[in-house]
Every structure is written in structure tokens, then in C-alpha cells.
Design goal:
The chain is α/β, with parallel strands linked by helices. It is built from 10 helices and 5 strands, in the order βαβαβαβαβαααααα. α2 runs parallel beside α3 and α7 packs across α9. GO terms for molecular function: DNA binding.
Length: about 220
């Protein structure tokens, strides 16, 4: 079955461009469009999309609040949210990730990246591009902990190896890349990632990366 996509952006021309790209793919189907967060909520309830391409800055209700309501405890449907950002303007992307977005993508990303990101998010994975993650967190480093704060108690529940895996997840590495870095199997990495998410009460790799930065475990700009 085709992946059902809802386009949410207050610029009609951008929605048209995204629709043309996505409808060229046999496994993707654009089921609707919305020009603001309130319309997005209505469309999600009515159309039950698999993935919502969500702009951040929109009238009436922004993408952060819409994401929070779409993915929150009272959510009505399976929709995952992929945030679209112009990057140099959107200081709320981290807030969108906290709110439940499964990843973010630059609006000027190549068409193949957009298509792949939708497929990744629809499959239940997080779209965590290393280059964008690093630039984003570096840009907003002043809004994150200094590293001098007390380490959260939940972090102490992780084993030494799980902490290593969390750091690599925060750098945006895939399971295969983490496996190569730690000289273990990809299956072992998946197990460690699962333990990290469960112990920390996190939904996915994106929330794990944000947690790693907010807890001071990883610092913006650090290797």
C-alpha cells in the first residue's frame, strides 16, 4: 500500500512543488493539504495520513503545537511528523522534536532526500541527518545546558556501552555505522538502542539525540 502523505505549509507554491515530487513515486500518495496547524489537525483526523510534512511557521497554529497534538497521548491515528525547515529562520525545530516530530528536513533538500525521508519516517524510524543535526544544535548551543548541570538520574540507569551508543546516536550515526564504530553486530546495536529508549522513556532516536544534548552528555560542536 502507498504511504499516505499530508502536506502542511502556508505557501501554496511549495505545497504544489512537494506534491509534484511525491506523486511521481509509486509508493507515495498525497492525500491532502493544509495551510496552517488547525487545518492540519482537521485533515489528520479526516484523512488518517501515515506521514505529515509539517512547516513550522504558519498562521493560527504553528507547526510545533500541531505536532504536539498530532503525536501526543490523545492522538487520533498513526501519523508521523516530518518537520520542514528553512533552517536559518526556524529556531523552533528542537521544540518540534521535543513535541514528537520524527525528524526534520531542509525545504531545499534534493527531491530524492525528501522521498527517502518520508519512507524512513513511515517505517517508524527517525530522520536524523548528521549534518543538519550538528548545524542545528551548534546554532542553538546557548539554549542548551552548559554541561555543568547535574547529570539526570535516568542517565545512570544506562550501562557503559549503552551510553556509548547514545552518544553515537546523538551524532546521527545509523545502526550500521555504530556497529562498525564499536566493532559489534548491527543486531547488537539495535538491542542497545532499544534498551536506551526504554530506560530513558524516549520514543525514538530523535528524542534520544535531543536528550543527549540536553543532559550535557554530548556538547554541540564536540566530536
Amino acid at each position: 500500500m502507498a504511504i499516505r502523505v499530508l502536506l502542511v505549509d502556508d505557501q501554496p507554491l511549495l505545497r504544489t512543488g512537494f506534491r509534484m515530487i511525491l506523486e511521481a513515486e509509486q509508493d507515495l500518495a498525497v492525500v491532502g493539504e493544509a495551510g496552517d496547524g488547525l487545518q492540519a489537525l482537521e485533515q489528520v483526523r479526516a484523512l488518517q495520513p501515515d506521514v505529515v510534512l509539517m512547516d513550522i511557521r504558519m498562521p493560527r497554529m504553528d507547526g510545533v503545537e500541531a505536532t504536539r497534538q498530532i503525536t501526543g497521548p490523545a492522538k487520533d491515528g498513526p501519523a508521523k511528523v516530518l518537520v520542514l525547515t528553512t533552517f536559518d529562520l526556524d529556531e523552533y525545530v528542537v521544540e518540534a522534536l521535543r513535541a514528537g516530530a520524527s525528524g526534520f528536513l531542509l525545504k531545499d533538500a534534493p527531491a530524492n532526500e525528501l522521498v527517502q525521508a518520508i519512507r524512513v519516517v513511515a517505517a517508524g524510524e527517525a530522520m536524523l541527518a548528521p549534518s543538519i543535526t550538528r548545524r542545528l544544535l551548534d546554532k542553538y548551543a546557548n539554549h542548551l545546558p552548559s554541561g555543568e548541570e547535574a547529570v539526570p538520574d535516568t542517565l545512570h540507569t544506562l550501562t557503559e556501552r549503552e551510553v556509548e551508543v547514545l552518544k553515537l546516536v546523538a551524532r546521527g550515526l545509523s545502526n550500521a555505522e555504530i556497529a562498525a564504530d564499536l566493532f559489534v553486530s548491527e543486531t547488537t546495536v539495535k538491542t542497545h538502542v532499544g534498551h536506551v529508549l526504554t530506560k530513558l522513556g524516549l520514543r525514538d532516536r530523535v528524542q534520544a539525540a535531543v536528550y543527549a544534548y540536553e543532559s550535557g552528555l554530548v556538547r554541540p560542536g564536540a566530536q
